[in-house]
Amino acid sequence: QQIHAPDDLKSLLEEIHQQAMKITEGHVADYIPALAEVDPELCGLTLATLDGEVFNVGDTQEQFSIQSISKIFGLMLAMERLGEDLWDRVKMEPSGQAFNSIVQLEWEKGIPRNPMINAGAIVVSDVLVSRYSASKNAVLSLVRTLCGNDNVYADNIVHQSEKEHGHRNAALAHLMKSFGNIDAEVDELLDHYFWQCALTMSCENLARSFTFLANDGICPFSKKKIMSKRDSQRINALLSTSGMYDQSGEFAFTVGVPAKSGVGGGMIAVVPDFGVICSWSPRLNSYGNSARGMYMVRELANRLGLSVY
Ligand code: GLN
């Protein structure tokens, strides 16, 4: 697929960002104080292309809580450690339910629908704490390699407050343990899961990190092979069907690229053979996806004809 980008991508991004600033719909995540206090007006848009160019508009250097976008990093390590066996413990089907829903787990005997909802990411965290002597270091070194920046950390306040308010996630973990789908101690794996959600990064760091997914597994900046083409295709498939939670169908319909959002207001969208878009703005729609982010990514995809379908 040939993408005919306009000569001035930067001015297109600026125009879309300016329009997005008028959107005031949605609410900042307020399940923990650290997220509720983020300035709702902040808004960033980055496009990192495979020829190594990075276009930034707005608040693209601010660090924010990446939340569920971290589910991709965890999944990458779990796929590497467990191989095909991972898919006995988590499925690859869209859930059609909210990201933190518990109902399907009971019907499906503790096997989550996919690794992009909380239950699935908790199983992935179980794999990491069981298979790595230092699971947090493994994630951190992966993230730092991917974004080419050693200055990435988890926010301690977010981490602690996720733990204090994480009763629903604890319920998911205990229910799965009762079905035999969790090996580690629940407290230990939840600590890993909450820590991973508390990673803070900027739009530019995130856009750079995921360019390998648009490039058959190879990072266009470092030229490193991050994973096989097949595994990167599999991750893109999961992002296409489950990355935007129960809005994934609408996202495929209106935008048409693999993407992942987080309740911190961030979103990454992978455009195969072209690059990665990262948007960030804290106000969320009812699905937990950023309202301004949805507008910006949809607009950019439509204006450039980026849908993969
Ligand atoms: N920390 C959040 C939770 O576990 C992450 C969810 C999200 O970003 N959708 O509920």
From TrEMBL:
Chain coiled-coil ranges: none
Record protein name field: Glutaminase
Originating species: Idiomarina loihiensis (strain ATCC BAA-735 / DSM 15497 / L2-TR)
Molecular function terms from GO: glutaminase activity
Assembly notes: Homotetramer.
Family as reported in the entry's similarity comment: Belongs to the glutaminase family.
Gene: glsA
EC number annotated for this UniProt entry: 3.5.1.2
Keyword Hydrolase part of the UniProt annotation: yes
PANTHER family documented for this protein: GLUTAMINASE
